[in-house]
Amino acid sequence: MASAAGRSIGLLGGSFNPAHEGHVFVTRMALHSLRLDEVWWLVAPQNPSKSTSGMAPLDERLANAQAFVDLPRVRVTDIEDRLGTRYTADTLRCLRRRSPTARFVWLMGADNLATIHRWHEWYRIFTTVPVAVFDRAPYSLSCLASPAAIRFRRNRIAPLRARDLADQEAPAWTYLMGPRHPASATAIRTGQAKFRHAGA
């Protein structure tokens, strides 16, 4: 964790089952728009909100993500498994405690903003680190009516100030609308399953 000291780091969590171009797209946007030093892909042992059906083993998903991404400022990590944390709020608290001088930013899509109020102690995510939300259809506008967006509406900063988000005290969040990438892990897995079935 010493490498995190004093750096601005975007945290992109997920199952990465599998990693895809949508993850890369958001990562590139975050590095550019938020002026981050690096982005960490937090490959989750098991997302508590998702079914284990069709979930590849952690080692396989980790290796896939490491082989897939080809960006010099991206670190693929199983730190949640090593920390023994199950929920995002707990992971962020541990990271802040271990690297108090790092400037972490939680990265997520508009689909997550729309449903994050169902996550375990979701409000602690917003009060622990700044949050950057990236546009994703069909949640572009509806996500702004979500309980999380409403609860923290006074803490939202304009996209023009997004480059300073990592330096803001939580709660602080921004919503970056604009180009979107259509890729989704669910669609990729469905396509792979159809391909295997057709080839059987």
Mean pLDDT across the residues is 89
Helical amount = 25-40%
Q: Per the principal axes of the C-alpha atoms, what is the gross shape? A: globular
Structural class: alpha/beta
Distance between the termini: 46 Å
Low-confidence stretches: 188-198
Number of helices: 8
Radius of gyration: 16 Å
Give the number of DSSP strands.
6
Based on the coordinates given, report the CATH architecture: 3-Layer(aba) Sandwich
Strand content: 15-25%
CATH topology: Rossmann fold
Fold topology:
Elements: E1 8-14, H1 21-33, E2 38-43, H2 58-68, E3 74-77, H3 79-83, H4 88-98, E4 103-109, H5 110-115, H6 122-128, E5 131-134, H7 147-151, E6 173-176, H8 185-199
Parallel strand pairs: 1-2, 1-4, 2-3, 4-5, 5-6
Helix pairs in contact: 4-6
Report on this structure:
This protein has 200 residues and is of the alpha/beta class. It has one domain: 3-Layer(aba) Sandwich (Rossmann fold). Helices cover 36% and strands 16% of the residues. The protein has helices at residues 21-33, 58-68, 79-83, 88-98, 110-115, 122-128, 147-151, 185-199; strands spanning 8-14, 38-43, 74-77, 103-109, 131-134, 173-176. Strands 3-2-1-4-5-6 form a 6-stranded parallel sheet. Helix 4 runs parallel beside helix 6. The longest helix is centred in the C-terminal third of the chain and has 15 residues, at 185-199. It is globular and about 40 Å long. The protein starts with 7 loop residues before the first strand and ends with a helix. Mean pLDDT is 89; it is low at 188-198.
